[in-house]
Amino acid sequence: MSSNPLQGAQFVLAAHRISQLPADQGAEVAFAGRSNAGKSSALNALTGHRGLARTSKTPGRTQQMVAFSLPPLAQGDDLPPLDVRLIDLPGYGYAKVPVDLREHWKKEIDAYLHQRRSLRGVVLIADIRHPLKEFDRMMLDFCFATALPCHLLLTKADKLSRNQAIQAMAAMRREFDAAERQATVQVFSSSAPTGVDEARAKVIELLRRPREG
Ligand code: GDP
Q1: How many domains does the chain have?
Q2: For ligand 1, atom 6, which residue shows the shortest CA distance?
Q3: pLDDT tens, 86-120?
Q4: What CATH number is associated with residue 35?
Q5: Ligand 1: which atom is nearest the Cα of residue 194?
Q6: Structural domain span for residue 67
Q7: Is the pLDDT of residue 35 over 90?
Q8: Whether residue 44 has its Cβ less than 6 Å from ligand 1
C-alpha cells in the first residue's frame, strides 16, 4: 500500500451545482481559496500528482466544483475501508469573476457546507504574505456556522523567511483564539516544499473524523 493515502487521486467530475456532485456517502474534504492563492499547487503536492488540479489555469476553469476520488481509506478495527474524496471548490475572490457568478457560488458553497453529509472539513488556502480577504473570511464564517473543522494553509511560505512565516502563523492563531474560533493553521509551501506531510495528516484525520451535529 502507498505511504501516502492521498496518492492515486483521480478526477471524477466537474459540477456547476451541488446536485451534480457524486453521491453523498463516505467522507470528503473540501479545498477552498481565492484564485491564485495556490490551491491547485497544494492539491497536487498533497496527492503527489503534479497534473491533478491544473495550476495557473485560465480564470474560467476555476469556476466549477471538481471532485477527485481517493483510494478507499483504511479505518482500522473491523470497519470496512471508507469511500473518500477531495472536492476542489471554485475560488472566485477576484474582480474578473462576474458578480452574478460570484453570487451563484456563494449560495452553492453555503448550501454545500450546510447540506453535504459526507463533508468532514475544509482546507482553506491563503497566501501567507497577505491578510485574509473577504472570500477567506466568508469561508471561515460558513465553517463556524456549520461547526465544520477548518484547517488553514498559509501557503507560499518560501517567499518569506522562516521567522516571518512563523510570525504570520502565530498572528493568525492569536486572531482565531481571540475570536474563539476552532480553526487550525499551519505554514505551507508547495514549492519548497514545506508542511506537506502535516497538511496530508490533517486531511486524513478529517476524513476519518465523524461529522458533528
Ligand atoms: P490557484 O489559483 O489557487 O489554484 O493557484 P495555483 O496553484 O494555480 O498557483 C498560482 C500561482 O502561484 C502559480 O504561479 C504557482 O506557481 C504559484 N504558487 C503556488 N504555490 C506556490 C508556493 O508554495 N510557492 C510559490 N513561490 N509559488 C506558488
Answers
A1: 1
A2: 38
A3: 999 998 766 677 888 888 999 999 999 999 999 99
A4: 3.40.50.300
A5: 23
A6: 10-208
A7: no
A8: no
Q: How far is the CA of 171 from the centre of ligand 1 (A)?
A: 23
DSSP lists the bridge partners of residue 184 as 151
pTM value?
Answer: 0.95
DSSP line for the chain: --S-TTTT-EEEEEESSGGGSSPS-SEEEEEEE-TTSSHHHHHHHHHT-TTSSPTT--GGGGSSEEEEE-PPBP--TTPPPB-EEEEE-----STTS-HHHHHHHHHHHHHHHHH-TTEEEEEEEEETTS---HHHHHHHHHHHHTT--EEEEEE-GGGS-HHHHHHHHHHHHHHHHHTT---EEEE-BTTTTBSHHHHHHHHHHHHHSPPP-
Task: Give the per-residue pLDDT at 149.
Answer: 95
Amino acid at site 78: D
Q: Which of 31, 35, 56, 164 has most ligand 1 atoms within 8 Å of its beta carbon, as the pocket-test mutant?
A: 56
The per-residue pLDDT for range 1-12, each reduced to its tens digit, is: 458 999 999 999
Q: Check whether 58 has a pLDDT greater than 80.
A: no
Q: Is residue 2 part of a domain?
A: no
Measure the CA–CA gap between 53 and 182, rounded to whole angstroms.
Answer: 28
